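haha ok so turns out i had the wrong file open the whole time. this is the CORRECT one, sorry everyone. sequence first:
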Amino acid sequence: QLTIAPNSIENVALMSSEAYRFQGSSFQVEIEQYAGGSASVGTYAAVTDAGELSYVIFNAHNGRLTAWRRWNGQAPVQIGSITLNPTAHRYLRLREAAGRVYYETSPDGTTWTTRWNIAHSFSDLDSLHGMIGVQSWGSPGNNPVPGLIGSVGIVE
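then structure:
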């Protein structure tokens, strides 16, 4: 369970302590309950470098599932956005194959749907980390709903 405090602007995150090789592998997260309670509370899953200067990320907030990327400290760029369906999007996966990152969702962790894919610009595929978190910004409200993470894994 990842929880933010009422009426606070914060980011509560867990990042893998060990870097791993992202090339040809994936980072997968089961989200039993997305964080919420207001339009400015969200849940995310990312693959990032240690300094969070380059990353690919799923971000769910305000009834939307969005995909973003950031390279070399530049401004984040949104890749896409769809209506969040907590059942159909219970599992989120970021997968690398042949120089591309695939943003995929699944209701069961077995059958995957590719939502978006992009060519990546990670400088070192051998030194990346998986990260999950909940965050708040703007006016998060006094009754935030925690994010419940069922499982997290790296599949090589």
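The mean pLDDT is 94.
again sry for the mixup
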